[in-house]
């Protein structure tokens, strides 16, 4: 696919390609059976973090217009990075692998740069061991495979976490005065709470909550955490679980139906989140309530 400022063309095309987009990013994953030679170009207006989840290539050759060069084997667990606007040309020899990537809006990195007094001003890199970045990308893939969809609020929260990690690990330190701590005023927090309560039956996007507060998603995530002691994702999940508990208590609706009514992408997602918040499964909650 190519357009002005965007080109992501890898040939032959990988199999079982799945993609999921949200306000500030895109997750992609696919697999490739053994292929003697693969060639391609990546250039996007977003920062791209890539992971070889399994499999390998006998040789990976990378040439980036920011000056980065790499030649060597590609291996499972390797993380690569392509900064926004940088063109990365690659060639894979003897490859059979499963991969995933997260593309991130550069604006997500601004709050982390301010908070950490750093700046993500780096070129491309290839085949770096980065367990945290690998774990975040792998979790996206696992959730998409298990639930068939990704929660937009989860995607946006983890995007902020990944952006902060990249700035902390790879950013250049700047000698800046510490920023003052500030919190959301009560009326803004009340507006956000009312919005969440009114939209529990559907997707709730961090970007929409940020717009209510007049902030970018990244700055909103930080301000909300300072105000409430919770991330926006934890707050949304807590409200969904509380509403689900009320429905379990007041109705005979199936747990699968309740999961959909309070906005979870699947029954398994509902069960995991409910257990994380309450310590027990929804079915046990219902049994205890009616004992």
UniProtKB/TrEMBL annotation:
Keywords recorded for this protein, A-Z: DNA-binding, Transcription, Transcription regulation
GO molecular function terms noted in the UniProt entry: DNA-binding transcription factor activity; sequence-specific DNA binding
Gene3D superfamilies associated with the record: Homeodomain-like
SUPFAM superfamilies named in the record: Homeodomain-like
Family matches, as InterPro entries: AraC_XylS_family_regulators, Homeodomain-like_sf, HTH_AraC, Tscrpt_reg_AraC-type_HTH
Domain spans labelled HTH araC/xylS-type: 190-288
PANTHER family linked to this entry: ARAC SUBFAMILY, HTH-TYPE TRANSCRIPTIONAL ACTIVATOR RHAS-RELATED
The name this protein goes by in its record: AraC family transcriptional regulator
Species assigned in the record: Sphingomonas oleivorans
